Predict the structure.
Amino acid sequence: MANTSRAIIRAGIHKRIRRKVRGSTERPRLAVYRSLNHIYAQVIDDHHGQTVVSASSTEKDLRGASGGNLDAARRVGQAIAERALAKGIEQVVFDRGGYLYHGRIKALTDAARAAGLNKNEATAPAEEAPPQEPEPAPKREKKRKKDQQQ
């Protein structure tokens, strides 16, 4: 039986992603790490191997008095975008770190885009489509015993 914990599987996925995603000096990589209680984001220049800016939900000014993990992810996304823009970085390559692009990860990137990072990718939040009424299923005709005999 293979040792396949969620952390090991995620690490493998992250390795495959990192083979494809590279950050440069002009367009560094925005790497995200998510723990059960906190979320961390770094803008990394892979060419020089340096972290340019970082933000996390453990920082005193980013901790919220109330609100859950989604709110914390939004605050971190906004902070990382503001810090990157202050350093002159407007474009980044997003590295989701092996996590699904959903929930806290999506909230962080949406907040970063809304704060001005990757302006050409900024999209308005998708409006919910009005609920469609399901079409009534066609009625099936009951076969009568007389019809089956013929």
In short: The domain at 9-119 is CATH 3.30.420.100 (Nucleotidyltransferase; domain 5). The CA atoms of residues 77 and 112 lie 5 Å apart. The two ends are 59 Å apart (CA to CA).
